[in-house]
Amino acid sequence: MRRHPTGKTLGRLLVGGYIVIYLIFVLFPILWLLLGSLKSRYESLLMPPRIIFEPTFLAYEKLLFGGLLHTFGNSITIALINVLLALVFGVPAAYALSRMRGSVRKNVSFWILSIRMAPAFGVVLPIFVFMRSLNLLDTITAVIIAHLTINLPLAIWLLLGYFDELPQDIEDAALIDGANHLQVLWRVLLPVSRPMLIAVALLVFVFSWNEFLFAFILTSSEAQTVPALIASLAGTMNFDWPLMSAISVSALLPAFLVVFFAQRHITEGLTLGAVR
Predict the structure, then answer these.
(1) What is the pTM of this model?
(2) For domain 60-274, is the CATH number 3.90.180.10?
(3) What is the rounded CA–CA span in Å between residue 170 and residue 178?
(4) Which of 37, 89, 211, 273 could form a disulfide with 245 if both were Cys (CB 3.0 to 4.6 A apart)?
């Protein structure tokens, strides 16, 4: 007698099929970019596109020796400084909010969240006018400040949820021993908050690395970041698809490496901050 698949087997098949479809959906654009970066400009514009072709590394040579690498340096500098500032300002702010009670905490927390949820197009114009008045357009400083306006509220909210879940007994014991709140934060809470600090740092880095709108509006050449560079190439009359693909593939590597080597810390930190 033929045996029909059980409900458990059918469920596994459905889940497996969903995962395969999802991977195809996610990986196909990356594969397409990689193939496009290895084509000549002529082959990249052929319709229908060729799957089999003779690969060339001319686009990567343009990237390495065409004066474009400074944009990667700008992106790395902006992202790292954003991580540092988000933690320096976010940790004490989150700790202070976590220990507040009443309407003050509620109102301040909501105000911080509203900044993070504000549409970027509604914020970029005031920031542009402010940076122009300070003569900071096309500088790394302008992009750092702009990115911090969206990354700092994120860091505060993630750390706030984490500090709320830490046992109050740990802090009380340190206060009874004579430590002040700053010493409690530095010597007691931060060491046990390492997974969350790493998770916040990595998320801020990735968000700053991938941010486009602020960098595109506030920079032109000297402080241009990688996403803004790709957009500027797409807007020229001389459309170089292989070069854009090569830059995009290279821009994916830092984010992939960060997530690959630190995914355990991200999962652990966000889980501890969300589950009581």
Answers:
(1) 0.82
(2) no
(3) 13
(4) 37
Residue 128 and residue 131: Cα distance in Å, rounded?
5
Tell me the per-residue pLDDT of 9-53, one tens digit each, with 9 for 90 and over: 777 788 888 888 888 888 888 888 888 888 877 777 777 777 777
3-state secondary structure of 47: coil
In whole angstroms, give the CA distance from residue 139 to residue 214. 12
Amino acid (one-letter) located at 26: V
Got the DSSP string for 211-243? --HHHHHH-SSTT--HHHHHHHHHTSSS--HHH
Cα 3 from Cα 246, distance rounded (Å):
52
| Residue that is written with structure tokens 């506030």 in the block | 218
Structure token pair of residue 204: 């801020």
Distance CA 152, CA 88 (A): 10
Domain extents in the chain: 7-58, 60-274
Within a 10 A sphere around the Cβ of 171, how many other Cβ atoms? 20
Report how far apart, in Å, the C-alpha atoms of 194 and of each of 143, 222, 257 are: 28, 36, 20
pLDDT in tens, 205-232: 989 998 988 999 998 888 889 988 888 8
